[in-house]
């Protein structure tokens, strides 16, 4: 299907007219009606500040505007990530993916593709429970740490990268990075996808700590998760929080019967795979000396 490219000035004009707003209303407080008219007729350049102002006046978020501009199609980089997970089933498929990413990395000199190589290679061996045969694991860990440590203000990409590769890092590093960087993202808690990303990280970190019997690292994350899950819209992570409160309290004396209430709720809601994750983590924790 052919995608018709619509210019920004055409989109702004369409959105304004659909809402019955005048050019003067859009301009008020920042620019002139004549400037808006020139922009809509000729596509003259406007600043990011002006664009944000127009969207604010029309009650349109930046995310919504981006979605409109892209015709609902995922950006190239996001699509590569989505497609990448489909290549983790076999080693030959992984190699195809890594070759494609390597070509993109060399052709663009964009570190994004190099970081994806590390992510998908590490995920492949982790999902196969075969990290001992990942000959690149030490170098990959150092590369990811070097990248993440150099960024003070993370975005969703950095949070996702770290979250997906938690298994590479020791508990001290996970906790230190959480305190140094991820807690800053708590200021975005009213932005729905950031809140989901952060609660997802907390859940994954708690599972990692449990499997390692590193109970001392759980307390601060459980406390923050309690605060984030006061909203009833986050029922799933509220159950996660309640479950790990019990795990933290019992630690090595935990009996899975202690989690029967939480498991019954999850099973009732259709989250059987999540219950299986708890059983798997429990068995791994018990197998540790």
From TrEMBL:
One of its Pfam families is Rgg_C
Residue ranges constituting the HTH cro/C1-type domain according to the UniProt record: 12-65
> Which Gene3D superfamilies does the UniProt entry name for this protein?
Tetratricopeptide repeat domain
What the entry lists under PANTHER family is as follows: TRANSCRIPTIONAL REGULATOR, TRANSCRIPTIONAL REGULATOR-RELATED
**Name this polypeptide is given:** Helix-turn-helix domain-containing protein
Source organism per entry reads Lapidilactobacillus gannanensis
Q: What is the lineage of its organism?
A: Bacteria, Bacillati, Bacillota, Bacilli, Lactobacillales
């Amino acid at each position: 299907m052919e995608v018709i490219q619509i210019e920004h000035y055409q989109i702004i004009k369409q959105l304004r007219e659909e809402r019955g707003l005048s050019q003067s209303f859009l301009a008020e407080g920042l620019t002139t009606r004549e400037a808006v008219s020139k922009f809509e007729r000729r596509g003259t350049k406007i600043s990011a500040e002006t664009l944000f102002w127009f969207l604010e006046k029309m009650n349109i978020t930046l995310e919504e505007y981006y979605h409109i501009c892209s015709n609902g199609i995922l950006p190239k980089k996001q699509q590569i990530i989505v497609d990448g997970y489909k290549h983790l089933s076999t080693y030959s498929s992984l190699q195809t993916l890594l070759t494609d990413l390597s070509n993109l990395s060399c052709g663009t000199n964009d570190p994004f593709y190099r970081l994806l190589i590390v992510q998908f290679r590490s995920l492949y061996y982790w999902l196969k429970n075969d990290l001992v045969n990942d000959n690149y694991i030490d170098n990959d860990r150092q590369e990811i740490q070097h990248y993440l440590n150099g960024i003070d203000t993370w975005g969703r990409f950095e949070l996702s990268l770290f979250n997906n590769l938690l298994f590479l890092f020791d508990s001290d590093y996970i906790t230190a990075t959480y305190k140094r960087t991820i807690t800053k993202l708590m200021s975005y808690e009213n932005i729905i996808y950031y809140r989901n990303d952060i609660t997802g990280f907390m859940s994954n970190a708690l599972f990692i700590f449990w499997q390692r019997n590193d109970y001392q690292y759980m307390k601060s994350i459980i406390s923050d998760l309690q605060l984030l899950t006061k909203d009833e819209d986050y029922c799933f992570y509220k159950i996660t929080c309640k479950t790990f409160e019990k795990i933290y309290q019992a630690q090595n004396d935990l009996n899975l019967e202690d989690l029967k209430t939480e498991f019954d709720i999850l099973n009732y809601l259709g989250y059987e795979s999540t219950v299986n994750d708890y059983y798997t983590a429990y068995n791994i924790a018990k197998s540790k000396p």
